[in-house]
Amino acid sequence: MPQQSWNEETLNPPSTSPQKDEPSPYQVMLQSAPPDYLTNLDGATRELAPEYPVYYFFYGTLTVAANLKRVIDLQEEPRLRKAKIIGYSLAKWGDYPALINGEQGQEISGYAYLVQCEEEAQKLAYYETNAYRVADCWVFFTDDEEPSEAPGKTFMYAGDAQALLEQRFDRKLWTLQMGGKLG
């Protein structure tokens, strides 16, 4: 049997695909985009909420000052401000309200509290469970005090909002809550 001779071209045949050094059309587009391209969607000029202190908007059990005081271990009653957020809707998750995306202009009324530190935020997240996720929002205060609006955070339903509305099994939420425990 004749011995095959190996050379560079046999091991690395010429490629018809673009070289790895050449950026893809998507990379070229991103390189030419303004620095805030991914965070300034649809020309929005809203700034993201600062780390701390930051207003958290509540629409359920945490609108009761005594509940909030207990959850974040405060010595005194917390100062809650009447507020609303726009573009959201509420659905029922068992006995609890669940915030989901709503129609443009749709308003949800509630209260906002100025969370002072990461420890308070962690206690709130623990209380809300992994059925809810922290989301950025814009808080509009309705109490005639200043500031009249501010960037903030709120807890949104973490599962499949459509499944929630249709009252059917929510595989996304089930996976979040089970964390792969059955497999």
From TrEMBL:
CDD domains: GGCT_like
Domain of life, source organism: Eukaryota
Any one Gene Ontology molecular-function term assigned to this protein's record: transferase activity
Biased composition (Polar residues): 1-18
Domain Gamma-glutamylcyclotransferase AIG2-like: 56-163
Keywords: Transferase
PANTHER family the UniProt entry points to: AIG2-LIKE PROTEIN D (PTHR31544), GAMMA-GLUTAMYLCYCLOTRANSFERASE-RELATED (PTHR31544:SF4)
Name of the featured protein: Putative gamma-glutamylcyclotransferase
Organism this protein belongs to: Aspergillus pseudoviridinutans
